[in-house]
Every structure is written in structure tokens, then in C-alpha cells.
Amino acid sequence: MKPLLSRVESKKVDKAAAMLKVLAHPKRLAIVDLLGKEDKMTVTEIYRSLDLPQAIASQHLITLKDRGILSSFKVGTKIYYSLSIPKLLDVIDSLEECCDTM
């Protein structure tokens, strides 16, 4: 077994912490949760579903895409977003379970 200090300072832990920082925003969590229920959605579908201003939704989508959490592709004039890391839904579910017991 690796010493605790070695595990805590690993790149893996640093990457996980950075990912959690990105997901710490309630609107970004809502976007991830929404895209976990749908295969793909346009920006318009996302901001309307979450009742967000388009500019705010776009900023969050860019942040999530830049971190590799979302992927996107263009069809005509529409940009579709989808979840790149489906296992993040397990994290959200686990956090919800923890909150329910508090």
C-alpha cells in the first residue's frame, strides 16, 4: 500500500479536485444531470429546460466542455451537447443520497 502522503499528492487527486470544483456550481450540476437523462440537447433546449438566460447557459456549457465533461457537435446551425463522462451521474446520485441523510 502506498503511503498516504504519496496518494494525497498524486495527479489523480489533483484532477479529481479540479473536476469537483467545476461541478460545484448548482447550474453546472443541473446541466450534467439534465444531459444524463437525454442523449443530446441543443443550447436552446438546455437553457429553456433549466430556465436560464442563454448567455449564462452558454458560459456554463463552455466551462464543462473545456474540462472534458461535455462534448459537442454541430448539425447545420445547431450545436448539440452530450455528456462525455456518464459516471458523473453516479457522483451526483451519491451526493444526493448523502444530502438526504443529513
TrEMBL record:
By its UniProt entry, which InterPro entries does this protein fall under? ArsR-like_HTH (IPR011991), HTH_ArsR_DNA-bd_dom (IPR001845), Metal_resp_trans_reg (IPR051011), WH-like_DNA-bd_sf (IPR036388), WH_DNA-bd_sf (IPR036390)
PROSITE patterns, alphabetized: HTH_ARSR_2
Highest taxon, organism lineage:
Bacteria
Q: Which GO terms describe its molecular function?
A: DNA binding; DNA-binding transcription factor activity
Give yes or no: UniProt keyword rRNA-binding.
no
Q: Does the keyword Transcription regulation apply?
A: yes
Query: Which key words are in the record?
Result: DNA-binding, Transcription, Transcription regulation
**Which intervals hold domain HTH arsR-type?**
8-102
Matching PANTHER family: ARSENICAL RESISTANCE OPERON REPRESSOR ARSR-RELATED
> Known NCBIfam families for this protein?
HTH_metalloreg
Indicate what this protein is called per its UniProt record: DNA-binding transcriptional regulator, ArsR family
Organism classification: Bacteria, Pseudomonadati, Bacteroidota, Cytophagia, Cytophagales
